[in-house]
Design goal:
The protein is mainly beta. It has one helix and eleven strands.
Length: 205
Amino acid sequence: MEEIFKRIAILGICTLVATSIWAQNELVDQLTQKYEDKSTINLLIKNHYDIAWKDGELDIKKYVTEERIYVDDKVSSAVKESVHFSTFYNLVSLEAASYAPKGNKYKKHKVTEFKEKSGGSGSIFYDDSKQKVFYLTNLTKGSKTKIEYVLDIKQPNLLSAAWLQEFYPTERLEVSISFPEEVEIGYKTFNIDESDYTFEETTKG
């Protein structure tokens, strides 16, 4: 029987999105004016959940993309980042890179060293959480960074919330879910109006 997959997407509204053809100075100037007191801006936070049947059980993967830009002259040349995971959120893959302005282009600096550390909270209860720690380097004003990773989620009830506002201001937030027709998906929104996001649903099969 042919499987029919549905895809739903919730997109955070934004007023400025960077394109692959980077007008460096113009983009930095626009963001600086829009976020006067901020030195770092999320250009894109994207969470895609892929749900499928595998050996009679749900197989859930979460694909995450995080893109940032640094718009302050005082940006540190290296920024420490980490990705958390555990038995219930198994880390399948991780890639990261920084893009330093060079003339009218960007030079890519791919992260090659990742260190695994315990992410325990110090509680008396057992906690198997861990983290991959790495550094994004060669950062200057106008530099961009990109982090991509995949998590294998062991239980459907562990699907996490998506926040329209994070520590840094966010230009664009995308949340999407692909799932078989026989799986029912629901979502709830809190403290936002319908004008704050758009909703799309498509069917393939």
